[in-house]
Design brief:
single chain; alpha/beta; eight-stranded mixed sheet; three-stranded mixed sheet
């Protein structure tokens, strides 16, 4: 079913580098406090090194976290890693207003990422039984959402140009031995700001918005 966004703008906040937990708490406050007329937002951020464990997370998937903190969070899924050079995108959407089911939203997120990667000449695909986006069987982007009061928060993490070693300290997304990859391994001249700009455009397209706007001000 086509989304109900119509001619609305989708607002983006470029947060730069921010610690994980304050941004997570701000997402919760935004979601709990929003009314039916509050416009949707997307937050783009990089986090210092952190492992996040989803609601279904099992301790055995944390192999050797070492000095990297572990945060128990309220999204779906298992454990993943965030760190500098990874583009994390939080989708604060009124899913009920958009007319999307959760599965459709996940599919639109995957299509957004696949189109973005195609613009760099990277052929990617989704898997029906394992949400996320993959290149030659290796995972390049992870997805994890929470729906509360008909609204989504959390979102996706795209590996752009980062230290991949911490993924070896976990079973990524609960899969032992899952290969992980990143954009810079498949394309040259990857610029983080350009990746962010292209992803913004693809989100507007695949979520059925007419245009985007850049939001200013804090997230508290």
């Amino acid at each position: 079913m086509p989304g109900a966004a119509g001619l609305q703008q989708l607002g983006f906040r470029e947060l730069g580098s921010q610690p994980y937990e304050p941004v997570w708490r701000a997402m919760q406050r935004f979601t709990d406090g929003r009314g039916p007329d509050v416009p949707d937002e997307v937050w783009l951020v990089q986090h210092p090194a952190v492992f996040t464990q989803g609601q279904a997370g099992k301790a055995e998937h944390l192999l050797l976290p070492g000095d990297i903190p572990v945060v128990q969070v309220d999204r779906g899924g298992q454990v993943t890693y965030h760190g500098p050079g990874q583009l994390v995108v939080y989708l604060l959407l009124d899913v009920k207003r958009l007319g999307f089911g959760v599965r459709e939203l996940v599919s639109r997120m995957e299509l957004t990422l696949i189109a973005l990667l195609a613009s760099y000449g990277i052929t990617a695909a989704a898997k029906a039984d394992a949400p996320g986006v993959y290149v030659d069987g290796a995972k390049i982007a992870s997805l994890g959402l929470r729906i509360r009061r008909g609204c989504s928060f959390h979102g996706l993490a795209l590996n752009v140009d980062m230290d991949m070693q911490p993924f070896n300290r976990i079973n990524p997304c609960g899969y032992a031995g899952l290969a992980m990859t990143q954009m810079c391994d498949h394309a040259s001249q990857i610029e983080f700001a350009e990746v962010s700009a292209r992803l913004r455009a693809q989100l507007v397209k695949h979520l059925d918005y007419a245009e985007q706007t850049t939001l200013t001000g804090g997230i508290d």
